[in-house]
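#struct-pred
JK: can someone run the complex with adenosine-5'-triphosphate? inputs below
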Amino acid sequence: MAPTPSSSSKLSQTHMRTPQSKHRLNFIAKENPPGEHPVEVIGRIRNFPGGGGGGGNQKDETPVSSLHINPVNNTLRVRADVGYKDFSLDGVSSSEEEGLDAFYKKFIESRINGVKMGAKCTIMMYGPTGSGKSHTMFGCSKQPGIVYRSLKGILGDHGEDGVGTFVQVTVLEIYNEEIYDLLPSNGGGGGGFGFGIGWPKGGNGSKASTVKLEVMGKKVKNATFITGNEAGKISKEIQKVEKRRIVKSTLCNERSSRSHCMIILDVPTVGGRLMLVDMAGSENIDQAGQVGFEAKMQTAKINQGNIALKRVVESIANGDSHVPFRDSKLTMLLQDSFEDDQSKILMILCASPDPKEIHKTVCTLEYGAKAKCIIRSSNTLNKDKNEDSSSAVILGSRLAAMDQFIHKLQMEIKLREKEK
Ligand SMILES: Nc1ncnc2c1ncn2[C@@H]1O[C@H](COP(=O)(O)OP(=O)(O)OP(=O)(O)O)[C@@H](O)[C@H]1O
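RT: done, structure tokens with the ligand placed:
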């Protein structure tokens, strides 16, 4: 796919234009009450790797955590080389204090209730490798992750919630800029009442075990889907899928997921849609210790999704009539989330308290804090402006500031790479 002309020249563009495109013109729509902004950013700090509490116990030689979390005012303090850096987000959570159950109840449950009633919501796990993105999405044997809790939230324990409610689930993987269907093609779920695996009209029911899919418009073509009203049965299928994900060992994370995983859960009776995205870590090649052409290509292609996401944000900020959603498979599939005014986006920033990870943690939090800061200033501005024009102007200023921030980050990364 030929890339859309890069917007790199636009990076230095500080002139703000009112967006002319339809993308998110009503970003700060009247119907969003305070605290229910369409884009929210929360931080989830994982357990100290290796099981220590991060308290600096000399016996087990656990280093002192580089993070202090204050859930009361949603701030995080990072102990940097010199002094401290403070970050303010829409929510913060320490997995040491709040397991996935408490995390789900606090930050996710209300959104899932919305999806059940017909709302659209995209939840992205973002952060460096090993920071707990997959753990938050899928959980572990003791603690189910967001995917399984959401299914239960919509369907209830035994399909008893909401008479007639059923869901349609598609599970995709984006790896090396190819989209793979992760659901079995042979109805491996066992069937039974209220459960089935199917294909859209024209689809092929006898596919090979890993199937590459094409994108048509903003949707994948011929993806297998599970339909059902029993959360337990659907969860079992997704658990099998978890194992099918392409994982490869890197220095950063022994079973590092080298792909973006996307679960699309539709509630057809009410038009609700939940998109859950476990993004691949976006480490640079040196950090990940990848050697060889194939491995380097792989890392570069993983970054392609992240870079394209950045370009999409830049283009919306510049008010371009053309937004390069088609620069990567990830952004193609996220296009609806950006374009639909009714769709909410939640970005979960995953980070580690390990002092060795401090640079990546700071980069992740700076990204999120900046987005949060822009949202806050836009809310203040909104009070003083004429309603019709304010949303477009605010969107422009908010995203232009994000654009500048991303540019600064890029320069910083380049500088650090040179220093190495
Ligand atoms: N909050 C947590 N509590 C317990 N274990 C965790 C937690 N977060 C992560 N882990 C463990 O740390 C390891 C790495 O986490 P995970 O795979 O979720 O990272 P990731 O951010 O998805 O990395 P990658 O981008 O490489 O896929 C896993 O073994 C996971 O079970």
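RT: quick notes.
The radius of gyration is 21 Å.
Residues 387-419 form the longest helix (33 residues).
JK: thanks, will look after standup
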